[in-house]
Design brief:
4 domains, binds S-adenosylmethionine, about 450 residues, alpha/beta, N-utilizing Substance Protein B Homolog, Chain A
């Protein structure tokens, strides 16, 4: 879409949603990025912004379910844009009860006329009106349990099977349902500049209601508004971050004055959290493989008035050959991962991830972890985290790591919210979206044993 320079926004929310969905479908863009760019570029107002987001994400989230509903009504194969138009219209009819179904049908017909011709418009009209009259079939009709869950929650069947095998049907079903809920808007209070109560008051002055989380004290949940547009954000009182991403810095718990290394740091969400925890005293060296991403860390530290972070472009798999060995008190590896925990924010990844993509990730993660061992002081602590839910990737990496590095020992995760503390086992915690209404996340902690 962006390649062809086609204008996404013409003042019509459904039309814009269709353009975004088509671009995502053609792998020209990620849904979250294109949606954000569109909203910023065209300065789309709050009401339209909310509906555009809801329709785009909702349609993507429920794509497989919508196709199941549409199948009996669509004869033969239709062009991709027509199928997406049908999906987004049926999404409104079926899931957005506040939108009168006839309005959704009329809009679809107008779009079909504009983008296609009268024949397509009549077909779209016929299909949607038939659905209005007859209703959609229930997913309960699907005999096979795995297939039923996959279609009903719109996840690929291979992933559902993999999840059920690992986590059981109950946990899996809850997680899959959670993946289809809108993501909460959470921010982290910059405790160098404000207390949670002060940050709440600042946001209140800008008309945004913020509530302190029941899990982590520095986390606020926002209702309405856009955190990134607030003065509280621009002046560095808050950072936009999912609550689960606030766990690693809490678990590593670096103290003021320490020398800390963040090996996969960009854009700096956790680097800045570490510095806040250290009261801006000591040092944090923030590495990332991609030099251009380091600017994002610098922007964040400048905005938050953090002075102890230095950045360096470095491949974590080679870091020990460049940095001084055994010179860091604490190390964080927030590793590149399969990202299956963030499906609420990036629903398109449900349909694009392939099992083959996972294998190489563990090799990369183990390479970075091995370098961390050499760089860590004896008695130093290491935290490894990912934003994914996959036992083989997370626990598999931990097991392989411990087997290869006998001087490293898994330790109890400290500073977890009480509600999560008992979910950990053997120094590892898999956070499911249902635990804190957050992204899915994984954290593990280790200490380097002192050698005699
Ligand atoms: C999950 S993201 C980190 C997010 C970051 N910790 C935060 O909280 O904002 C993983 C990062 O690892 C970087 N990365 C990938 N491979 C790497 C490597 N071999 N060495 C260092 N960084 C790497 C990616 O560029 C990406 O920025």
């Amino acid at each position: 879409m962006t390649k062809k320079k086609q204008q996404i926004w013409n003042g019509n929310v459904r039309d814009a949603a269709l353009s975004i969905l088509l671009a995502v479908d053609k792998n020209q863009a990620y849904s979250n990025l294109l949606l954000h760019q569109t909203i910023e570029k065209y300065k789309i107002e709050a009401k339209d912004r909310a509906l555009l987001t809801e329709i785009t994400y909702g349609t993507l989230q429920h794509k497989l379910t919508l196709d199941y509903y549409l199948a009996p009504f669509v004869r033969g194969k239709v062009e991709a844009w027509v199928q997406w138009l049908l999906r987004l219209s049926l999404f409104q009819m079926h899931y957005l009860t506040r939108i009168p179904p006839h309005a959704a049908v009329n809009e679809a017909v107008e779009i079909a006329k504009r983008r296609g011709h009268q024949g397509i418009a009549s077909m779209v009209n016929g299909i949607l009106r038939s659905i209005l009259r007859q209703g959609v079939r229930s997913t309960d009709e699907i005999q096979d349990e795995m297939e039923r869950l996959a279609i009903a929650t719109s996840h690929p069947q291979w992933l559902v099977e993999r999840y059920i095998e690992t986590y059981g049907i109950e946990q899996t079903a809850t997680m899959l349902a959670c993946n289809n809920l809108p993501a909460k808007q959470t921010v982290r209070v910059n405790t160098l500049k404000a207390t949670p109560a002060e940050a709440i008051a600042l946001l209140e002055q800008e008309g945004i209601t913020a509530v302190q989380s029941e899990f982590l004290p520095e986390c606020l949940t926002l209702t309405g508004g856009q955190a990134a547009r607030t003065e509280a954000f621009k002046k560095g009182f808050i950072t936009i971050q999912d609550e689960s991403s606030m766990l690693p810095a809490n678990v590593l718990n670096p103290q003021p004055g320490m020398r800390v290394l963040d090996m996969c740091a960009a854009p700096g969400g956790k680097t800045t959290h570490l510095a806040e925890k250290m009261h801006n005293q000591g040092s944090v060296l923030a590495l990332d493989l991609h030099p251009h991403k380091l600017e994002l860390i610098d922007e964040n530290t400048a905005r938050l008035d953090i002075e102890i972070v230095q950045t360096a472009p470095l491949d974590g798999r080679k870091a020990a050959s460049i940095l001084q060995k055994e010179s860091f008190d604490a190390i964080l590896i927030d590793a590149p991962c399969s990202g299956l925990g963030v499906m609420r924010r990036k629903p398109d990844i449900k349909y694009t991830k392939r099992l083959e993509d996972f294998a190489n990730l563990q090799v990369i993660q183990l390479g970075i972890l091995a370098n961390a061992v050499e760089l860590l002081k004896p008695n130093g602590r290491l935290v490894y985290s990912t934003c994914t839910i996959d036992k083989e990737e997370n626990e598999g990496t931990v097991q392989a790591f411990l087997a290869a590095h006998p001087m490293m020992e898994a330790i109890l995760l400290e500073n977890l919210p009480q509600q999560l503390a008992e979910e950990q086992h053997n120094g590892m915690l898999q956070v499911f979206p249902q635990h804190m209404d957050s992204d899915g996340f994984f954290v593990a902690a280790f200490v380097k044993k002192e050698t005699n």
